[in-house]
Design a protein that fits this description.
Layout lengths: L3 H15 L4 H8 L3 H8 L7 H11 L3 H26 L42
């Protein structure tokens, strides 16, 4: 199951690390306890919109930028989950086509040239013109 708080924390951590900043620097600038910011980054705590705004200000990142990155991560995570569940499900059986003995026709009387009708189940017939 995809947890939004975990994705959000991952994106916040990456933003902070891209800037080469420590948890202590960002927590001080955002006026958030170091422990709480650490828990938010690890996806253990839900961040309120006010807290996110303070963290974004401290990181000098627009909240819309942050949310766009979270949205992209969410899309990728959902696709990965779908692929995983598809791989885990039973494979779709391939229908078995019955084999017919080959029929050889040397001549047909009373039928316009090149036209022959063979009555057989549609899924069991491959017609090859010679």
């Amino acid at each position: 199951m995809i947890l939004l708080r975990r994705l959000l924390g991952d994106v916040l951590r990456r933003q902070r690390q891209r800037q080469g900043r420590t948890l202590r620097e960002v927590s001080s600038s955002a006026r958030v306890s170091l422990g709480y910011l650490s828990e938010v980054e690890r996806g253990q705590k839900e961040a309120s919109s006010e807290l996110l705004s303070a963290i974004c200000d401290a990181l000098d990142v627009r909240m819309s930028e942050l949310m766009r990155e979270v949205s992209d991560e969410l899309s990728l995570a959902e696709l990965a989950e779908l692929a995983e569940s598809a791989a885990a499900s039973d494979p779709v059986p391939v229908p078995v086509r019955p084999m017919l003995n080959s029929v050889s026709v040397s001549s047909v009387t009373g039928v316009p040239t090149g036209r022959v009708t063979i009555k057989a189940p549609a899924e069991a017939v491959d017609v090859v013109a010679a």
